[in-house]
Amino acid sequence: MNRLAEEIRAAEVPAGAVRLWWLGQAGFAFKAPGGLVVYVDPYLSDAVERLHGFKRLSVAPIEAEDVEAALVVITHEHTDHLDPDALPVIAKRNPKCRFAAPAGCAEGLRNAGVEPGRQVLLEPNQSRALDGVTVHTAPADHGDFSPSALAIVLDFGGVCIMHTGDTSLRTALFKRLFDLRVDVLLPCINGVFGNMNHIDAAMMVREAKPRIAIPCHFWTFAEQGGGDPAGFLDGCRRFAPDVKALLLKPGEGLTVSRREGQ
Q1: Which of 255, 201, 147, 175 is nearest to 26 (CA)?
Q2: What is the pLDDT of residue 253?
Q3: Least reliable range by pLDDT among 38-52, 144-158, 219-233
Q4: DSSP characters for 237-262?
Q5: DSSP type of residue 188
Q6: Cα separation of 163 and 11, whole Å?
Q7: Element containing residue 48 per DSSP (H, E)
Q8: Residue 71: how many CB atoms within 10 A of its CB?
Q9: Whether 233 contacts 224, CB under 8 Å
Q10: What is the pLDDT of residue 237?
Q11: pLDDT band for position 261 (50/70/90)?
């Protein structure tokens, strides 16, 4: 078991808080006070290079064999979100784990060996209570690349974390998620294939009004656009100066506590 896997297993999360770790690209792991572990979009293999020729430029901080999870949430079916090499391993090594995803992921989950009884269909503009976390959804705008792509908010008992998935800036689509008083916003910033760039993402921060903003979906493949994380921090200073914008390195964690008064 590698260092990050051991850290996630050993982490003791205080009441009213959540700990998160960035896994690179759009992947995150979350741990709640009761020990619940949730993964979102874990891309942990070299499947994109194998299938599409895009060489991975940053090493995944955890291997699929070391993932221990009760729930995996997938925002859409693209290989760097629904990992066809990692998910079969995760599913096999975590027989009680469920996989929640939109309709476009059905074939990929089936090919990964996830039985129908372990699949949870996520539809847009829906809220689902799953294994100690409530998943709120809204349609993302990933264009024709993925018509069923979603943005999500994970509500861990009052700590709300929004993951944009892959999307362009369409704030009207996300209003129901912004209205949840998002604590942390995790926006994509790579700026190609229909996705927000760093300025778009900073403008979304202004609209969402989270307490913390952490960019993702950058520096994994040259062909997907480099992204500009420093530019995102500068954009947040310009457009949302009251928000704490910060960068995580792959494998780095952060504990987020519930808002005061909640």
Answers
A1: 201
A2: 98
A3: 219-233
A4: HHH-TTSEE----TT-EEEEEPPTT-
A5: B
A6: 22
A7: helix 47-52
A8: 23
A9: no
A10: 98
A11: low
Name the residue among 124, 116, 110, 46 with its Cα closest to residue 77.
Answer: 110
Instruction: Give the up-direction half-sphere exposure of residue 11: CA atoms within 13 A in the CB hemisphere.
Output: 29
Percent residues over pLDDT 90 in the chain: 94
123 Cβ partners below 8 Å, 6+ apart?
102, 103, 137
- Residue 21 has phi, psi (to 5 degrees) of -135, 135
Q: What is the CATH number of domain 3-245?
A: 3.60.15.10
- What's the chain's average pLDDT? 96
228 close to 201: Cβ distance less than 8 angstroms: no
- Cβ contact 29:23 at 8 Å: yes
Structure tokens at 131: 């294994």
- CA-CA distance, 66 to 230, in Å (whole number)? 31
User: What does the block give as tokens for 12?
Assistant: 């003791």
Longest Cα pair distance anywhere in the chain, in angstroms? Answer: 50
The helix-helix angle for 198-208 and 229-239 (nearest 10°) equals 40
Which residues have a Cβ under 8 Å from the Cβ of 62 and sit 6 or more positions away?
A: 2, 4, 5, 8, 23, 29, 44, 251
Cα 65-71-76 angle, rounded to 5 deg: 90
CA quadruple 86, 10, 257, 98: dihedral positive or negative? positive
Distance CA 125, CA 106 (A): 19
CA–CA separation, 48 and 55 (whole Å): 7
Residue 9: CB atoms within 10 A of its CB come to 13
Q: What is the pLDDT of residue 262?
A: 59
* pLDDT at residue number 119: 98
Q: Tens digits of per-residue pLDDT, 124-167?
A: 999 999 989 999 999 999 988 899 999 999 999 999 999 999 99
